[in-house]
Amino acid sequence: MSVHELRRKPGDSSEKITINVGVIDLGQIDLLVQEGFYSNRTDLIRTAIRNQLTTHAEVVKETVSRKSFVLGLEHYSRSDLEAVQAAGEMLQIQVLGMASIANDVTPELAAATIESVVVLGALNASAAVKAALADRIH
Fold first, then answer.
1. d(CA 107, CA 124)
2. Closest CA to 81 of 135, 125, 138
3. Hey, what's the torsion of the CAs at 66, 67, 71, 73, to 10 degrees?
4. Measuring CA to CA, which residue among 84, 89, 99 is closest to residue 130?
5. Helical spans, DSSP H, in the chain
6. How far is CA 46 from the centre of its chain?
7. pLDDT digit of tens for each residue in the chain (138 aa)?
8. Is 60 in contact with 121 (CB distance < 8 Å)?
9. Domain-wise residue ranges, the chain
10. Cβ 106 vs Cβ 82: under 8 Å
11. Based on the number of CB atoms within 10 Å of its own CB, is 34 exposed (0-12), middle (13-18) or buried (19 or more)?
12. Which residues, 6 or more positions from 53, have their beta carbon under 8 angstroms from its beta carbon?
């Protein structure tokens, strides 16, 4: 299993979210964009999110440590899970960032080796693996 810290780079993939914003807030956002403070609405929203995450960075750090989360990217290959299975163990996946299960992992292997999945961020796995783990994903 490999762990990689995720850093923002041009071209990094991102997750799309949808938010509802009141018309007055939206008007103020548009005004700031029009005045050149931000290049567009998304730029303002991303900046606001980053500022809030910076403000709460210590809480995030403490919680990640206390709850034993892996911070960043955690990838599980077929050989990783086969080794877990051979050892007679089960994984408890806890990731803040992205957990990735290789495409060649069968639903049966995932079910036999993964006890629980908690991902704050994104879980990349085949639809069949996600279905096999549905009752273990929290």
1. 14
2. 125
3. 160
4. 99
5. 23-34, 41-55, 57-66, 78-86, 107-113, 127-132
6. 16
7. 444 444 444 445 678 889 999 999 999 999 999 999 999 999 999 999 999 999 999 998 888 888 788 889 999 999 999 999 999 999 999 999 999 999 999 999 999 999 999 999 999 999 999 999 999 999
8. no
9. 23-55, 59-136
10. no
11. exposed
12. 60
Q: Which residue has the tokens 């892996």?
A: 70
Tokens representing 110 are 């995932």
- Cα of first residue to Cα of last residue in the chain, in angstroms, is 21
Q: What is the arrangement of strands in the sheet containing 91-101, beginning at the earlier edge strand?
A: 2-4, 70-76, 91-101, 114-124
**Strands 91-101 and 2-4: what pairing?**
unpaired
Give yes or no for a contact between 109 and 82, defined as CB atoms under 8 angstroms apart. yes
Residue pointed to by tokens 């955690």: 74
